Amino acid sequence: MLRKIALLTLTVLSFSFSYELYKGAFLVDRVLLLPFVLEYSSVLGLSPQQERKIKDYALRHEREIEKRAKLVRYLEIEAKRRMLEGAAPEEIKELLTDVMLLKRELSLKNAECLRFLKKTLTQEQFRMLKDIALIRLLEEFK
């Protein structure tokens, strides 16, 4: 039991700390529900099967997102470097196209995650999750 709590805490913390990495990496700002579903699993009344399925998905999904977000950051820096060096417009255009395509892919991955949660949770659980996320987001503006 203690191991499960530690794993859940580390998972939630990794989502919280890694948000800065993702900021600006998506074509459309990311809708973050995974951290809330894990943090409020008892309030949502998740079954052990739901919790396991979501944790497994979160670990796979977030690793993939993190890799792509890092690549976006690298390509953005590389594009800036080449601009400063006076690189040919076609070279810069190619880099910017790669950045745009990766950002689109990340935004689509975010939509995939939301569909996964909607499919995994009951209608009531998903509604509660959206309410919790909205309240938490509004608290940030205070």
Please give a handful of descriptors for the protein shown:
142 residues; mainly alpha; 83% helix; elongated
Structure description:
By secondary structure, the chain is mostly helical. It has one domain (2-140). The protein is 83% helix and 0% strand. It contains six helices and no strands. The protein has helices at 2-22, 34-39, 41-44, 48-84, 89-120, 123-140. It is elongated and about 55 Å long. It starts with a helix and ends with a helix.
Brief digest:
The chain is built from six helices and no strands.
What is this structure's SSE topology?
Blueprint: H1 2-22, H2 34-39, H3 41-44, H4 48-84, H5 89-120, H6 123-140
Helix pairs in contact: 1-4, 4-5
Strand content: under 5%
Tell me the domain tally: 1
Radius of gyration: 18 Å
Low-pLDDT parts are: 4-17
How many β-strand stretches?
0
Described by the principal axes of the CA atoms, the overall outline is: elongated
Number of helices: 6
Largest sheet descriptor: none
Percent of residues in helices: over 70%
Could you give the distance between the termini?
36 Å
Mean pLDDT: 82
Q: Order of helices and strands, N to C?
A: HHHHHH
Structural class: mainly alpha
